[in-house]
Specification:
alpha+beta, 5-stranded antiparallel sheet, 3 helices, 5 strands, 34% helix, elongated
């Protein structure tokens, strides 16, 4: 995932499904990050809610890293 990928309209999805499978739990958390041209913001959605919207890529990347560490997330697939 790069700033340019997001600015070009790519969406990056993530979840903790593999972590849940390894630990025998059914509670999967998931979300995605995208850039909104309309709002000129990087947006992070998690478990169906917008949890972070910010103008700078570095701030969104920091928030995403915290989220990944706390919930054992990993990227899954991308959409254009």
């Amino acid at each position: 995932m790069t700033k340019q990928d997001l600015l070009n309209g790519q969406t990056f999805e993530f979840d903790n499904q593999e972590f849940c499978e390894w630990n025998g739990t059914d509670h999967v958390d998931a979300g995605w990050i995208e850039f909104s041209l309309k709002l000129n913001s990087f947006m992070i959605f998690f478990n169906g809610s917008l949890i972070h919207s910010v103008k700078t890529f570095s701030a969104s990347e920091k928030r995403l890293n915290k989220l990944f560490n706390k919930w054992n997330l990993e990227f899954t697939e991308t959409e254009i």
